[in-house]
């Protein structure tokens, strides 16, 4: 038998973890952190794209954390899904397997969070 209270706590915990991950990622891209910025340039992305990606991640975090608009939250889940898929592919392109593992792990967390979100609503 499912425990809705336990599912809700797990959902909120995973949601906060995702928000922290994408906030840090977006912040590092906006501030042109040398480690992340150089790696993203190495992947072939132009500088203006990195800035737009960072801003989009911060907007997605705000959408994930707001409690009212379900459709907006679903768009954030979709955007982060695309981000993680492309991060995985980009990691493969430059043979950065640690990036592939990281994006794969976060993708799994994202999927579980989305499933719990759907059960919650």
Automatic annotation (TrEMBL):
Keywords: Membrane, Transmembrane, Transmembrane helix. It comes from the Bacteria. It holds the Pfam family DoxX_2. Its main location: membrane. It is found in: Membrane. It is a multi-pass membrane protein. The chain crosses the membrane at residues 9-28, 48-65, 77-95, 101-117. InterPro entries: DoxX. This is DoxX family protein. It comes from Mucilaginibacter aquariorum.
């Amino acid at each position: 038998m499912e425990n809705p209270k336990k599912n809700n706590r797990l959902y909120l915990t995973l949601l906060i973890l995702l928000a922290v991950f994408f906030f840090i990622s977006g912040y590092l891209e906006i501030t042109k952190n040398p480690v992340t910025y150089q790696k993203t340039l190495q992947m072939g992305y132009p500088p203006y794209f990195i800035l737009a990606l960072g801003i989009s991640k911060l907007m997605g975090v705000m959408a994930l954390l707001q409690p009212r608009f379900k459709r907006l939250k679903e768009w954030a889940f979709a955007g982060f899904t695309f981000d993680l898929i492309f991060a995985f592919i980009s990691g493969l392109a430059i043979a950065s397997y640690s990036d592939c593992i990281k994006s794969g792990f976060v993708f799994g967390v994202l999927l579980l969070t989305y499933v719990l979100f759907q059960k919650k609503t």
